[in-house]
Request: fold
Amino acid sequence: MQLRFAEPADAPALLSLINLAFQVERFFVDKDRLTLPEVEERLHTGRFLMMEDAGELLGCLYLEPRGERVYFGLISIAPRLQGNGLGKRLVTAAEEYCRGAGFRFVDLNIVNLRTELPPFYRKLGYADAGTAPFPEGEPVKLPCHFIRMSKAL
Reply:
């Protein structure tokens, strides 16, 4: 298994994996998580850490620098591999990179309707840090908001 940062040519593969992984959210939002232009924009505002095996994209995580903090988002593992520890390995590798790069804190947002996620991140040392509204104009089927979580590096 290899970890590397995405290049612009990886955008279509990232888009496919992210939208596949986020289909679990279709019960409250009825659209793909991202479009190709949105992935390409994120390649300019941050970086995607990719986890691959024999050229197959297994997981990815978006990192966006914000001063001494770094935001983690779009954490995606191929659905057929979820529950096998790859998410933890990807988050741990991203934290190690960020620690080495001088970031002091990691922040992430979780939709409150994804009740399985806060306990997962708490086990990894993340703590609740408040809430934030879900983006205006998103086609949601259920009322929702973000749970903000943070971890000191």
Summary: Strands lie at 2-5, 47-53, 56-66, 69-77, 105-111, 127-133, 145-152. DSSP finds four helices and seven strands in the chain. The domain at 2-152 is CATH 3.40.630.30 (Aminopeptidase).
